[in-house]
Amino acid sequence: MKMIRAIVRPEKENDVVLALEAKGFPAMTKMNVFGRGKQKGITVGPIHYDELPKVMLMIAVEDNEAPAVIDVIRQSAYVGYEGDGKVFVSPVTESYTIRTGMRSE
Amino acid sequence: MLVEITAVIRRDKVAPTMRALDNLGLGSMTIATVSGRGRQGGNIMTDIDREVPAEYESVSKITKHLTPASFALSHSLTRPVFWVPKRMLTIVVPSPMKDDVVDLIVSTNKTGWMGDGKIFVSPIEESLRIRTGERGTSSI
């Protein structure tokens, strides 16, 4: 399995979730985070913001579904400006459903 | 070898889980406040509602005052995206202890109702204690 962590604009959260749901990926965990990118935040006039609010979506998927999920996130979270976010993919060796105790790899 | 065990569990199961892990000698963990939804996609909140045992007062309180429909209206959404409040525990353990910890979390958190949560196990390549600079198993 793969764990996909997508850090997206908070205002795009609903779009991304609905798009993922439409493709058959309704299950995910959401977390409010703060971060900055290569640009070290943004400067608006005299004020510099170096912690920008973002939403992190964590989605666990099968290995072969990962490219599809990444594609959906890319399309639905895209604005075209710096700050659109990042997608990180990391390995998950196994996962368990607590209700049934069922194990899957 | 170290593994990271990430468990997304019910809010009221954090204390029992911490107590159970303490008995196993694992006191250290990271707790985060997250929102989640499972395979049901928050769509059948009414079903979850009906199936949630009465002692989950927190859940019934939310659904009593904030239905998916009222949430959607107040946020001008076309359709509701409903999230269930959860806690995420992250525990890093040596890989031989993995099965014990997973079994313990499953047995402590199992209620048999939808929304009990998930556990993910993933490898940790390197670990370092910042204070002393120890690496590997001795760092946890």
- How far from one another are the termini of chain A? 6 Å
Helix content of chain B: 25-40%
Oligomer: heterodimer
CATH fold description of the largest domain in chain B:
Alpha-Beta Plaits
Output the radius of gyration of chain A. Answer: 16 Å
Span of the ends, CA to CA of chain B: 12 Å
Number of alpha- plus pi-helical segments of chain A = 2
Total beta strands of chain B = 4
Helix-and-strand structural type of chain A: alpha+beta
| Poorly predicted regions of chain B | 43-65
**Strand arrangement, major sheet of chain B:** 2-3-1-4
Mean pLDDT of chain B: 78
Stretches with pLDDT under 50, minimum 5 residues of chain A: none
Q: Can you walk through the features of this model?
A:
- The complex is a heterodimer of chains A (105) and B (140).
- With 105 residues, chain A is of the alpha+beta class.
- In chain A, 20% of the residues lie in helices and 43% in strands.
- In chain A, helix 1 packs antiparallel against helix 2.
- Chain A has helices at residues 13-22, 66-76, and strands at 2-8, 28-35, 42-44, 47-49, 52-61, 85-91, 94-97, 102-104.
- With 140 residues, chain B is an alpha+beta fold.
- Chain B has two domains: 1-37 and 84-140, 2-Layer Sandwich (Alpha-Beta Plaits), CATH 3.30.70.120; 39-82, no CATH class.
- Chain B has helices at residues 14-23, 45-51, 57-65, 68-74, 98-109, and strands spanning 2-9, 30-37, 84-94, 118-124.
- Chain B has a four-stranded antiparallel beta sheet with strand order 2-3-1-4, covered by helices on one side.
- In chain B, 26% of the residues are buried.
- Residues 43-65 of chain B have low confidence and may be disordered.
- Chain A binds chain B through residues 1, 3, 14, 17-18, 21, 26-31, 58, 60, 90-99, 101, and chain B through 3, 7-9, 32-43, 77, 79, 81, 83, 86, 88, 102, 105-106, 109-123.
